[in-house]
Structure formats: structure tokens, C-alpha cells
Amino acid sequence: MSGTVSKSYYEHDDKVIDYCNKLTIKLHPMQQELQDSTLANHKMSVMLGAPEVLTIGQNFLKLIHAKKVLDIGTFTGASALAWALALPDDGQVISMDVDSSALDQIGRPVIEKCPKTAKKIKFHTESAIDTLDRLIADGQSGTFDFSFIDADKVNYSNYYDKSLQLLKPGGVILVDNALWSGSVTKANKDESTKAIDACNQHISQDPKSNSFLVNTGDGLHVAFKV
């Protein structure tokens, strides 16, 4: 993986990052199985979320005693599984993606081995914008605790704004791929990079949240609704 950052399941030369990851990542056996299966069986396995980011998210869920989670971008279900494992028995993850093929092929067979965990997750196969708008229309604004954004980059700012509306005060938003292999620092940016940079700038300047951007995984922007 090119750039200044890398996910821990790829080799990299930064011994400091490697040291931090080894002391951070704590994967449940189901998570390990799902990660291994994704890396071995999907041609776009690079889309898999960094386990260090998922561990950070799980710790936030426990810290804020979260029960309701938005998971924007399902892929094989690794992030949805991470959140479900960290939630109490009455917790709920709403995971959304326009394509369920990777989930059906790789994720479901792993997740459904544990009905107790699987029942916490509701998968929606449609535009995440549509799902978020429907939740808002249904009167669920201000009822969610946590949102993880890892879907199409051109909609990052839209996902952030809608997540912020749906979150309670004190709720946490994690925006993954916030550095995009370091490309956000380059002069020539493609459409996805421009959208990520715009979202980072928007979050940093937003008076409705407090935030920080960290160089872990492929970059993680963390925002807290005020």
C-alpha cells in the first residue's frame, strides 16, 4: 500500500506504527476469521477496515456505553461485526451498503455462527443516503450514539452531516480513510481525494462538533457532537 500510512494487515517499514498496532489490536476470533477470509478471498480486500481502527472504535463504544450504531459501508461486514461484539445484548447496528455480494460471500457465514451477535445487526442494501434520510424522517434524529463512515468518498461530507443529525450530544463519529494513503496532502487530487479533504476541512471547522485527526490505519478523523 502506497503513501505515508498503511493498514496493519499489510507489511510496512515504520517500526513505530508496527509497535503501536501490536499493542493496540485485540481481535475476537470471529473478527480474525472474517479478516483472514476477506484477505484470502476478495480481490478488493484493500477495502477492509484496518483492525487498529476497529479496536479504537470498539473502545469508544464501551466508553460512551453506546447502544445504537450507524455503520456506513458494509463490505464484508468487519466493522459491523466489531461494533456488534462491543455492544450490550440490546444494542443495534444499522449497516448500509449498495452491494451485499461481499457480505453474502464472506461475512454472513462468519457472523451467523453466533446468533447472539448476528441479531444485533440489521443490514440494509441500498444507498446509505436513503437509509439515513429514512431514519431522519422516522424521527430518529438525536437517538444514535456512534457512526462509522467508510463508504463512497464523494459523499463523505453528506454522511458526516446526516450522522451528526442522528447522533445524541456526546455521540462519536469515526471517519475512516481520512488521509487516503497520504494523497490529501498532494497538490493534484482526484475526485475521491478532494471529497475526503473537503470533509476533513468541514469537520475541523464545524462548530457543532469537536474533533481530531490521527495518523492511524489509513487516517482516522474523530468527531464528538457537542
From TrEMBL:
<dbReference type="InterPro" id="IPR029063">
    <property type="entry name" value="SAM-dependent_MTases_sf"/>
</dbReference>
<dbReference type="InterPro" id="IPR002935">
    <property type="entry name" value="SAM_O-MeTrfase"/>
</dbReference>
<comment type="similarity">
    <text>Belongs to the class I-like SAM-binding methyltransferase superfamily. Cation-dependent O-methyltransferase family.</text>
</comment>
<keyword id="KW-0808">Transferase</keyword>
<dbReference type="Pfam" id="PF01596">
    <property type="entry name" value="Methyltransf_3"/>
</dbReference>
<keyword id="KW-0489">Methyltransferase</keyword>
<dbReference type="GO" id="GO:0008757">
    <property type="term" value="F:S-adenosylmethionine-dependent methyltransferase activity"/>
</dbReference>
<keyword id="KW-0949">S-adenosyl-L-methionine</keyword>
<dbReference type="InterPro" id="IPR050362">
    <property type="entry name" value="Cation-dep_OMT"/>
</dbReference>
<dbReference type="GO" id="GO:0032259">
    <property type="term" value="P:methylation"/>
</dbReference>
<protein>
    <recommendedName>
        <fullName>O-methyltransferase</fullName>
    </recommendedName>
</protein>
<dbReference type="GO" id="GO:0008171">
    <property type="term" value="F:O-methyltransferase activity"/>
</dbReference>
